[in-house]
Amino acid sequence: MTFETDNGKNENNGGAGGGKLFPERIILCRIGEIALKGLNRSTFEKNLYRNMRDRLKTCGDPDIHWAQSRFYVVPKSADFDYGKAVKAVSGIFGIVSSSVALRSVSEFDAFAEIAKKAVREKLEALGKKGAPGSVKFKVETRRGVKTFPMNSLEISCELGALLLDEFPELVVNVNEPDFILYCEVREESYVYTDIVKAQGGMPIGSNGKACLLLSGGIDSPVAGYMVSKRGVKICAVHFFSYPYTSERAKEKVLELAKIMSAYCGEIKVMIVPYTEVQLEIHAKCRDELGTVIMRRSMMRIAEELARRNGCAALVTGESLGQVASQTMQAMYCTDAAAGMPVFRPLIAMDKVDVIAVAREIGTFETSILPYEDCCTVFTPRHPKTRPSLEEVLEEEKRYDYATLEKAAVEGVEVVTVG
Ligand code: ATP
Ligand code: MG
Which atom number of ligand 1 is nearest to the Cα of residue 374? Predict the structure, then answer.
């Protein structure tokens, strides 16, 4: 069979004798939006290939090939852990779903054999082997090579009849089957009974790099995950106000980044010493504008670090109207300090929906640990919800932010997790 590999070469994995291919069991991965790409599609595919290769290294370092909207994970050794590999594949952005499939050469007798094997395994898994007519099933066939002498319907019918003969417990039910036997006839043939949903999205690295403002809260890890899902490589900035926020709060942020890295890959976390800036804003600026002024300083520092790390955008976990600094007027004032786009993927999401995602990706339990964040320590009692940019700019002149921010940037501590 002709496959594409990372170096663009074609490899011949042609069939062994007797219709069997080794290894017989592989993982078939379906790609989503990448399949719709035009000329630059191969860039996305190569990106995905690299991400899969990195993520599957700990699963026995299998061969990975791609052809016609499918990626194939082909184990090299007998002790390959399929369960672990499917789990790993399910977390890789760009893959929509996967199936552990049996494969053979594309001859009817050969794939009929693996179809029987797949059904035998499925019946065992269902625990329903035995009682005649107790298991409803159907066969769904896709024929990817038009040169094959039977069409999809003929293959499904013939395969179905053969399986009914072999397994008395089976009965055909196309509307409400207990399981579907999927059969794909391409240059090789594949059969499988289960489809495991994966993340979708785009391969990391295919859409540039951005810098996430990562607090210890619920929102920012979700924002980072969502942007990353669109193919963006992220690094993170955390503003740390020791001793107003404790070492444990920093550990919490690093733990959140660690959990995120299961999806986003390795994350470089930059811990910014922020105490001096906050104390100065607190001492010199009007309390009601303190938060907006602080957020503007965060943007300037994050932007400088973003540029140094090759990022083209900032990402925050803000959501419209959630707190005083997240009104339209406040965000206008904040954005005016940033010289690059600020992405806010949660802008129109309700908190309950953000929490649902946080639970799904596994950050929620860590996010709700009760360590204080540097924002909450200096939160004004009555923050202005509709600040004007003019008054903010005027107020900001009261402290020497440039010097303080420069020192903060130079004092960054870097921890890479994942
Ligand atoms: P989260 O749940 O993510 O903490 P939040 O609802 O508490 O968000 P804010 O505290 O106003 O909201 O923060 C809004 C956004 O600003 C956060 O989502 C995050 O992107 C950024 N942010 C806030 N505090 C910090 C911090 N200490 N370090 C880095 N980024 C921060
Ligand atoms: Mg917060």
Answer: 27
Q: Tell me: the pLDDT tens digits for 306-343?
A: 999 999 999 999 999 888 789 999 999 999 999 999 99
DSSP string, 40-64: THHHHHHHHHHHHHHHHGGGT--EE
Residue 213: pLDDT above 50? yes
Ligand 1 atom nearest to 245, measured from its CA:
27
E-strand stretches of 58-132: 63-67, 70-74, 95-105
The pTM of this model reads 0.88
Read off the pLDDT of each residue in 205-230 and give the average, rounded to a whole number.
97
310 φ/ψ sector (left φ>0, alpha ψ -120 to 50, else beta): left
- Cα torsion angle, 342, 346, 347, 348, sign: positive
Q: Ligand 2 centroid vs 223 CA: distance in angstroms?
A: 12
Phi, psi of 138 (to 5 degrees): -145, 160
Pick the CATH number of 2-197 from 3.40.50.300, 3.10.150.10, 3.30.2130.30, 3.60.110.10: 3.30.2130.30
Distances from the Cα of 238 to the Cα of 50, 66, 253, 261, angstroms: 28, 39, 8, 16
User: 408 with 300: CB under 8 angstroms?
Assistant: no
Alpha-carbon gap, residue 154 to 158, rounded angstroms = 6
- CATH code that applies to domain 209-417: 3.40.50.620
Tokens of 104: 């053979």
- Atom 21 of ligand 1 has which residue's CA nearest to it? 213
Q: Would you state the pLDDT for residue 382? A: 85
Q: How far apart are CA 282 and CA 379, in angstroms?
A: 9
Q: Measuring from each residue's beta carbon to the nearest atom of ligand 1, which residues come in under 6 Å?
A: 213-215, 217-220, 237-239, 316-318, 322-323, 325, 373-375
- Kindly state the percentage of the chain with pLDDT values over 70: 93
What tens digit of pLDDT does each residue of 339-381 get?
A: 999 999 999 999 999 999 999 999 999 999 987 665 566 777 7
Domain range annotation of the chain: 2-197, 209-417
Segment 268-297 mean pLDDT: 96
